[in-house]
Amino acid sequence: MKRSFGSKLKVASVVGARPQFIKAAPVSRALRRVAHEVLIHTGQHYDHGLSAVFFEELNIPPPDYHLGVGSGSHGWQTGQMLIRLEETLLIERPDWVLVYGDTNSTLAGALAAVKLHIPVAHVEAGLRSFNRRMPEEPNRVLTDHVSDLLFCPTQTAVDNLHREGICRGVHLVGDVMYDAVLDHLALAERQSDILTRLGLEPGGYALATVHRPANTDDPTRLQGILTALTQMEWPVIFPVHPRTRQRMAEFGLDLGRAGQNPRLIDPVGYLDMLILEKHARLILTDSGGVQKEAFFLAVPCVTLREETEWVETVEAGWNRLVSCDPASILQAARQFRPSGTPPPLFGDGRAAERIASLLAG
Asked: Are residues 71 and 35 in contact, defined by beta-carbon separation less than 8 angstroms?
């Protein structure tokens, strides 16, 4: 028997990191038309530039709960989230717990719910990099295997689940990040002045992001990436994640002096990032979300990893995987010029509506 809030379904949405805020924006809007949503922020990302600015720009309602977990080792962070999420779910007793993506917040939300016998719905289910050394990969696999509803962005994700024996509750809905880009690109064009502030011309610069521990915590890999960025023939704009900046200081990688490539800037909000992505001649990244946004915006992407969970972007010819030595990165940056337009692999921009409908169904 469902526990209802008045006449509506009650859904607890768990978010904690920048990519989840972007995904939650369209889903929350659609969900609140058919259900009572309780929004729980774990505090995994807590800097204003990685958290609050996204709530402001994406018009996401303020969290009903902010658990304030913060940084820590994977075990400590996940454990603290699990404790605090369990306490919150015992208070709220939702009908569903909705989790996003593949962070520690995702896994903690799923585990807290399943231990309390609350059904779990997973947005962005079925992704696989097939590299278990990536911290995100166990989070994805474990979350999928305890979920009751699995919302897949692509047919590849559906196929991955079927190969693991997961067939019930699997739905191909499209990609909610594509919904978010369609919802906010025109607004970004009107409101963002990031190109003017940075003195950039459309098509006259490359954009780089680096944040994954495999790259930031390995001094050889991080130095290889930064060396390549210093040797690019175009200006490189590099919004620096706090962890990346910390590791650069620890490893003695002194960059960002006046006139030197890359140009280091603080993390930017979603609207500014969309504009930087749209008008870049090339994107270099280790972010799954940025890979997709590059694809949606028809910008060539060089991914600074040996594998990706978004294999569709590689197969379509708009994403190229490279190792982290400078020669490989520079060669890909100079020679990679996809032609045509990216095929429509990520849905029609109505994934959030389908998710809300399936939850309410």
From this structure: no
Identify the CA nearest to 120 among candidates 151, 98, 94: 98
- On the question of a cis peptide bond just before residue 262, with omega within 30 degrees of 0, the verdict is yes
Cα separation of 10 and 32, whole Å? 10
DSSP label of 61: P
- State pLDDT tens for residues 152-195: 999 999 999 999 999 999 999 999 999 999 999 999 999 999 99
Q: Can you give the pTM of this predicted structure?
A: 0.93
Query: How far is Cα of residue 139 from the mean position of the Cα atoms in its chain?
Result: 14
- Predicted local distance difference test score (pLDDT) of residue 7: 60
The pairs formed by 333-339 with CB atoms below 8 angstroms and a separation of 24 or more are: 333/206, 333/228, 333/232, 333/282, 333/284, 333/302, 334/233, 336/282, 336/300, 336/302, 337/300, 338/300
Distances from the Cα of 258 to the Cαs of 21, 166, 208, 213, 261, in angstroms?
A: 33, 53, 18, 27, 9
- Active site members: 211
Closest to 274 in 3D by CA, of 199, 181, 349, 177: 181
